[in-house]
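=== RUN LOG ===
request id: a7f3
mode: sequence -> structure
chains: 1
length: 216
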Amino acid sequence: MTDKKVWDLGVRIFHWLLVLGMIAAWFTIEYRFMQAHAIVGYGISMLLIYRLVWGFLGSTTARFSYFICSPIAAFCYLKASLQQKARSYTGHNPAGSWMVLFMLLILFLQVLSGFFANNDLGFSGPFADWVNKTQSDQLTQWHGLNFYLILAAIWLHLVAVFFYQIVKKEPLIQAMIGGRKPSKYIGDDQYLKFVSNRVAVLVWLFSLAVILLVVL
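=== RESULT ===
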């Protein structure tokens, strides 16, 4: 059985850094390390900017135009998957594509609300002075509540991944580590374009520059 490359290095780095970032975000807020929490938040913001840009400029399987589909298609895929009749997809399947979009949306809301938040103990986000105290307090509350939504989405994502990994025997985790999947789990794609890692580095630098402009 031959393997085929499905994920570029940039997507894989983004994915695992985001995993580490979410763990660090939880740890730093749980133990009230506010300065460290802010740094983690800036790091996650950089990751999200990278993924947004890479969704337009990146490799085939990373592009939004490649995996975005209708809600009906996602529902039909879920139904077929539960019946063990769903076909394989090279990149994100229809249900997974909506999970990606949902996760990106709530993570963007999280970092944006964090930029306007405060903790009433002298710490505030870089944009907190752009709004009045009442508005900052409201956004701080949303920041906390949205984190529970993120946790729920993470658990749902993990359940889906392990369903594929254990029940359907599709090595999603290995693919996100090494970038390749066995040919039996590949879709009908005739050609995948992979953008140079040098372009990815430029996008990473652009994302870093945007965050530095926000922070400094």
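=== NOTES ===
The beta strands are 3-5, 180-182.
The chain has eight helices and two strands.
=== END ===
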